[in-house]
User: Fold these one by one.
Assistant:
Number 1:
Amino acid sequence: MSIGDWGHLSVIVAFVAAVVSAFGYYMAARGRALGEVDPAWLKLGRGGFAVHSLAVISVIVTLFAIIYGHRYEYYYAWSHSSNHLPVYYMISCFWEGQEGSFLLWIFWHVLLGALLMRSARQWEAPVMAVFAGVQLFLMSMILGVTFGSLKIGSSPFILMREFMPDLPVYKLNPDWVPQDGKGLNALLQNYWMVIHPPTLFLGFALTLVPFAYAIAGLWKGELTKWVQPAIRWSLWGGGVLGIGIMMGAYWAYETLNFGGYWNWDPVENAVYIPWLVLVAGLHALVLWQRGRTGLRTAFALVVTTFLLVLYATFLTRSGVLGNASVHSFTDLGLSGQLIVYLAAFVVLSVGMLVWRWQQIPVSEKELTMYNPELWVFIGATVLCLGAFQVLVTTSIPVYNAFVGFFGVKSNLALPADQIAHYTKIQLWMGVGVAVLSGIAQLMWWQKNDKESVTNTFTIPAMLTLLGAALVILLVRQNGQQMSLPYIALLTTGLFGVLANLSMLLQLVRRKVRLSGGAVSHIGIALMLLGILASAGYSNIISKNTSGLLYSREMPEEINRDNVLLWRNDVTKMGPYELTYTGQYFDVPSVPEYVNKELLFPVLNDEYKAVARGEIKVGDKSYYKAGDTLEIRPEDTYYRVVYKHQNSGEEFVLFPRAQVNEEMGGLLASPDIKLFWDHDIYSHVSSVPDPTKEKDWSEAKEFVVSMNDTLFLNDYFAVFKSAEPARNTAGLGLGKDDIAVQGDIIVYGEKGRQYHVHPVFVVRNGMVGRVPDEVEDLGLRITFDNIDPQKGKFTFGVSTTQKDYVILKAMEKPFINLLWSGTLLMGLGFAIAIYQRGRQPKVAPAAAKAIIKQVQAA
Amino acid sequence: MKKTHLLALVVIALAIGIVMATAGDASVYVSFKEAKELAADGDLRKVHVVGRLPHNANNDIVGMQYNPTLDPNYFTFVLVDTNRVHQQVVYFNPKPQDFEKSEQVVITGNMRNDVFVADKILLKCPSKYVENEVKGATAGL
């Protein structure tokens, strides 16, 4: 049995075991009250899940072994991995494809299921029935079996031969195996891409737990007891998913060149929507626990969160977004299967909600303005409205597909300016969230009446107004405008920070404990302020000021946001003087980038190069001239020196461009200089295509003797000597072959000298020439001939356009507020989880009593 | 009427407002002919146009112009929409690197006088979607 057959068998076993487990748990709990189970069926359910877990692990190990072993006869390995991929990126290529990412999700469910089997106690059977049911659905997505024309799932263990049977090579050689894989998309070769997808999928997996509890509660008619465990799991889900989303944002900021961290791409939205609803649902759960209100809302939101996760899966994996998104998966022919599952879960869970709706307890008490519950409830509503808005817009391609299904042609497209569209509404959601989180938190920990509310609100409100006024003045002072929505977000964001901070300080003074809620809220408010500053006041500093203006079509209000930098020429840009000084490579064994001019390419192996001179960083020497070293040729780093015109301070950025065949060409990634109060963000917009042959002028011939001077266009050069060539790479010299290399020193600008070594070879009686290039000067010299009798040497010199990059640079003020806010948000979730783990049953009345005691003390 | 009912009404009103705002901001896929008509009517809403790049007999793209040394922020090309209408498009930004290889091009923007001024170019590269080229599959013979 081949390794792939073993993997496929494991998939089938895992699927069947999930079916058995779901059925066993279902039968164990059927017709009984919560906590009572049929032991025989329970055993079957447990055993089924154990077998399922082992089989899933076997699937994962097998797939990884295929990738790790470079077994390119398998399509998955060929299409995602390659010979030169480091191990940590093999982990990311594991989940680059749809099947692998399903596996990642399945794996987290296996872990969570194991935890629940140990800890859920009376809930085990009904919760695990839902769990195994979802696993069955996910496993079926990678099942890869066909019944007639019906295809169920797409297997990761499919062979190249099966996937592309029409390749001509198979007619001649049925056993043909590719030598190398297509490799991991270079944009994904980033450490954030190693940890971001697992985090996100863990967040996805965590949303299943409260959902399973809610469904189990509905099923067993236990409509209140599920809240307690659901809160804790929702906190985990909210924290992990929130951090996962922001990791993706940070990856985008670091790697993609759209100039920001959030692009409102449908795939990003597909995760953002369930997160908002999850957080709203968490608040509803807490409301029930404390104030015995909002239980119906909690049910609805917890269920909706999971359905939205499934909808996100459908959006990103059905191909329906193909025209609208840059990073959705392609259609694997599974959209029908996804729709069926999505519909099944919607019908099942909505049906159960409807069935029990009237029995779900509601609060009899009327909420007044002095109830913090009211404000929390409104806050959750704002979150849901925000989620609803993103959902309505993101689904536009779905409407087209849907009406197209009925034969109606629709040409609706996503808004042309998506950023403006979403900002318009989401900004107000931010305002609402900031202000409500402040109000609710201040009122949460005390008994409220007119007097106490006035007392608690006065100081934060006054500080907010003062602070906001100060900031607005400073912004105006700097010649920037501040529109009304911006002022609203600034003021409410400040209020959110200050109100929650003042509550936190009070709690600390009362020596009670930190409030996870307050910490998270401060984080969210800081994030909002960071977004306001960095996105609202992002400033393009690479405005083209060359003064070139052509009377072309209509250049009035068009932004000209890129500058052209010639190699080694100083160009003024904003407050900086910029110099582009050359192309660099990443050499894995050297801590800094290495100048391409120091690296001589090796023929037939683009991953190797020979050092032309000593490579050293600081005082430490890494390679001597002639050493062969390994390089990563996909990435070229463009060294750009920034010098501040006033302060004279200098820093160097290395924006990179990647030759990326899969993505169709050259892709640019930014480099970022971090300051405490802003970032300088630069990426190359365009470079001369490195894969394209340069246009060389016709060679001009020079016949010279040693120590003669050659007058090139703008420079002059001295031919020092001709010497036997030994170390030059890739010549493959035999015993009787001769190679001579010329040593020419070219004097460039500012007294810079360049050693040029063109080589003249006689191999097997044939003459060959290896030219040498000075990229800085756009010069190429060939060693054309030797006349030993006269001691004359002939060189050909051709020139090309000088090297350049086109660069875009932005300034992002106070972006650190966003990142530090993210960390605080995560910390807040962690504190909340810790507290709930320690004191699981502090009833709200008791909590109040504790506070009063401490106040009195 | 309970306060929650009032709240529900407000929420429904806001939700309707959101749907309306979305409908108002949504763009459309149009042909160049329709884009011209819209512009002639003074409708400056940005539209999407889907098209292909025209090739000559040598399989070179026709009508594409970009000279970064002259002006890095000016790129112009011709796009042929689904009705085979040729239209000059101007993009005041550097040429996207993989432009020539794209099979299909989606642009957003609007007509100004006789040219279509694009502010966004979405490329659809064949290799990104269909993985049917295998390196070495022929060289190994």
Number 2:
Amino acid sequence: MHELSIAQSLLAIIREEMQKHGSPRLISVKVRHGRLSAIVPDALAMSFEALTMDTALAGARLDTEEIPLVLACRACGTKFSPESSDYVFAPCPACGEELGHTVVSGKELYIEYLELDEAQGT
Amino acid sequence: MQIPVIRNILEANARVSDDLKRLFAEKGILALNLMSSPGAGKTTLLERTLTDLASEFSMAVIEGDLQTDNDAQRVAATGAQAVQINTEGGCHLTSAQVLAACKELNLDGLDILFIENVGNLVCPAEFDVGEDHKITLLSVTEGDDKPEKYPLMFNISSALLLNKTDLLPYVDFSLERASNFARGLNADIKVFPVSCRAREGLDAWYDWLRAARAAKKG
């Protein structure tokens, strides 16, 4: 379950950013993950909750959003999102090529924003 | 207040992975991250490779396992340097663990460093460990649809070894189907059908290793 390591890394960044902005409280964090990164949102939420329990971050909300897979056809360069879940053999809608497409997006894993309580004393 | 923070969640791992890449480049070491499910034959492949190429290359192994140092003992028996990392439940190696293990090794004069990842087709694919290439092993007893089910690992691997080909008469596994699934999102992946147990097909793998080593050395 890589979600636990990912939640640990996520929390390290959150703590750093909170310190940078002088905020005492995290309201929510938004994470975007590519379809190929195989993140299970429930598992990430569970890890996040387990790691923040009994800490200053307890109760913060974790929002996740999947980034769809976008491939570029090896043969004609057309960019497309495979409709079926069987995306390894996704035929190009323009020319029908099935193999060797390049992954344009779908491997991402990043924080988009943090929602923080107003900094105190500033 | 909402603060835009566009930061890669795995940036801490990526930073150490970049440090490792610089270290390996400085020392001229080819680093390979070996990934597969548990039981696909990574350790047996290493035993064969370390033995058969012992006269050509100086090689070392970092072994990642949840528990035990069984595998490190097996590869050390070939005469190669071996360090064990026990992840204590962690399902993949991180670059920090690999960096710590490197401190236990004598890297001077080393040609090839194998990093045997924890057996798992999902998590190791997410964490770079300073490698030049990712290598995936898939055994024919696991089913030829695995590249389709776990696309990321096959997408980012330079080579795929299809192991245990001596068992092909007894299982429903199509080498062609598995290769094609792997090539679905990775046109350049090199596929090597091998049987580490029966010592078949290994010469092609060794040639690939020699070429990768030569490319690294420049």
